[in-house]
Amino acid sequence: MPALEQPLKSVLGPATAKVMAEHLDLLTVSDLLHHYPRRYEERGQLTHLADLPMDEHVTVVAQVADARLHTFASSKAPRGKGQRLEVTITDGSGRLQLVFFGNGVHKPHKDLVPGTRALFAGKVSVFNRKLQLAHPAYELLQGDDDSEAVDSWAGALIPIYPATAKLESWKIAKAVQTVLPSAVEAVDPLPDSLRDGRGLASLPEALLKIHRPHTKADIEDARSRLKWDEAFVLQVALARRRHAETQLPAVPRVPGPDGLLTDFDARLPFTLTDGQRKVSEEIFHDLATEHPMHRLLQGEVGSGKTLVALRAMLAVVDAGGQSAMLAPTEVLAQQHHRSVVEMMGELAEGGMLGGAEHATKVVLLTGSMGAAARRQALLDLVTGEAGIVIGTHALIEDKVQFHDLGLVVVDEQHRFGVEQRDALRGKGKQPPHLLVMTATPIPRTVAMTVFGDLETSVLDQLPAGRSPIASHVVPAADKPHFLARAWERVREEVDGGHQAYVVCPRIGDEEDDPRKASGRSPEDEAEKRPPLAVLDVAGQLAEGPLRGLRVEVLHGRMPPDDKDAVMRAFAAGQVDVLVATTVIEVGVNVPNATAMVIMDADRFGVSQLHQLRGRVGRGAAPGLCLLVTEMPEASAARQRLNAVATTLDGFELSRIDLEQRREGDVLGQAQSGARSSLRVLAVIDDEEIIAEAREEAAAVVAADPGLEHLPGLRTALQALLDDEREQYLEKG
């Protein structure tokens, strides 16, 4: 068996291997070699015994003056068999006591005889009002000319590993030392040309340098090399998927010159923005090819993604196919269905009296529909009567069959499991084209790392007539009168004929009572207050500062019909203030709503706040978003809210969000929920490496799709893509 594939059990013994497997997910020698130090301690410059600082790690050179072995009785050694070695050392400036206990006394008792000179390193503590080092590390010095040995030992960099309570860093370091000789057998995943061209160290050299660096430059060399491994192997996985997709057949969908799309464009009461035109052209170009389109459409909140997606769906219907739009919630599916039917008018009345010449049918399919309506919808799909279907997960069920599915549009990708998208794609006779929409702008590097197999289109222009949104932080604890003013502002908006949202983190019914929930965050613990709830806040507002206004609630656990009724009433202007959870976060479109108050805003992520804010300012009147928080001025939460208040640029905000959360969350899903495979690569900081690795990967895969000539890269890919991840990427 190759040395790197050996199970740790056979190298380190079963006890240590068991802890490593259970707590650190390390199973083989290779796993352990890729468990990199988190940071490095320096033993530090030599300290004179006269100037020892308390509680610090020190290194001293001194001579043993005295060594005594004591026996004592203790609970562990009741018959006086306990042993303690006390060694006194001196360097001329002062004296210091060292102590060793138990089985650890034998070696030092033999080594540290009076007159011996040595280096000692450890943490200074006090016992019986005397300074001491307990169980220090030491290195004996031979001969007079030991200044070089002293310098190199004292200056050594001690690796500190990600550890657990069951396995300290120094035990991991010891285990790494045991397997480090095997590093020479590490097969290099990087092609020689790439490595030489960029002056990168070989993999065995990088592994030696990261675990046993002599200088800080060694660490730098090793890290830059290992970052390349991570970026390149991930990009090769994505490039191979892109390549495989181009090999699949798909039906080209080219709209006719005077069909449904032309009629629809003629009906639009406004002109498309340059961005919408450009992105539509990219999509139409992809739809016309004989390979399935795989495109990510990301755009600012309110940039008109739905319109672009609808034009793509109409193009496919024109070409004789059907389009399906998958939405994450029923509220959203109903909302999309309503707005699509409104935008299309008589073009959505195919087969009905009064329907236009090129009209088609637009059907809705959700889990809570009545049996008769559902039967009719399924019939319209299988006969091809319905050109467009909008639905939730209900679309994925086995019973749903299409006449000729040509395009799948997935809204808010991050809310869908890969299996669900895959199941819907499997409903086409040939793989349908795929358009993924996301309203959470993703920094370019994350898009390249997580959605690297999708071509990306970005809408960053807002349509004309969109109003600016003013955002302000309301520090409710420091300045209660600011909160009172916030409710006055809501009343002013309503008096001016507009409507408002109030968003809370929690529903407030029995089921989500945080007093029953465990695992509260440290910030929650610090505040000792559960997050504000819709049901409580709605009552307080209706009886207090918003008395006399029409206040309604909306949350995810309401029956679907009730939710829809409330949304319709709000959209029709029959409700002044909607107190809701984040069910309104995505896609809800009420142009007359101009104000939003977000309670406990610090409990939401940056991207989520940006999403929520995008629900106001959708009409001609300017929008107002108030972020209410009780967090103190200096807290990280307040800085986050200030960032949201000062910029409307979603890409900038998602960068801030990512810097705060690190990439584990972002890649969590891309890595099939397994731990992120990135150990040294930081998605935001290593932007250049990721971009360059993507180019290199594309070139390698184009030249050798099966990686026949790169066995090392094939092995690294297998390690990155265990079966679960491989399937995840397959289904993408």
Tell me what you see in this structure.
- This protein is of the alpha/beta class and 732 residues long.
- The chain has 27 helices and 21 strands.
- The strands form 4 sheets. Strands 11-12-10-13-14-9-15 form a 7-stranded parallel β-sheet, with helices on both faces.
- Helix 9 (216-247) crosses helix 26 (711-720), helix 10 (260-267) runs antiparallel to helix 12 (305-318) and helix 11 packs parallel to helix 12.
- The longest helix has 32 residues, at 216-247.
- The protein is globular.
- It starts with 7 loop residues before the first helix and ends with a helix.
SSE map:
Layout: H1 8-12, H2 14-24, H3 29-33, E1 39-42, E2 57-72, E3 82-90, E4 95-101, H4 106-111, E5 117-127, E6 130-134, E7 137-140, H5 147-154, E8 157-160, H6 169-179, H7 192-198, H8 203-211, H9 216-247, H10 260-267, H11 274-287, E9 294-299, H12 305-318, E10 322-326, H13 330-344, E11 361-365, H14 371-383, E12 386-391, E13 405-411, H15 418-425, E14 433-438, H16 444-450, E15 455-459, E16 469-475, H17 480-495, E17 499-503, H18 522-527, H19 534-543, E18 551-554, H20 560-571, E19 577-580, E20 593-598, H21 606-613, E21 623-629, H22 636-646, H23 650-661, H24 663-670, H25 687-703, H26 711-720, H27 723-731
Parallel strand pairs: 4-6, 9-14, 9-15, 10-12, 10-13, 11-12, 13-14, 16-21, 17-19, 17-20, 18-19, 20-21
Antiparallel strand pairs: 1-8, 2-3, 2-5, 3-4, 5-6, 5-7
Helix pairs in contact: 8-9, 9-25, 9-26, 10-12, 11-12, 16-25
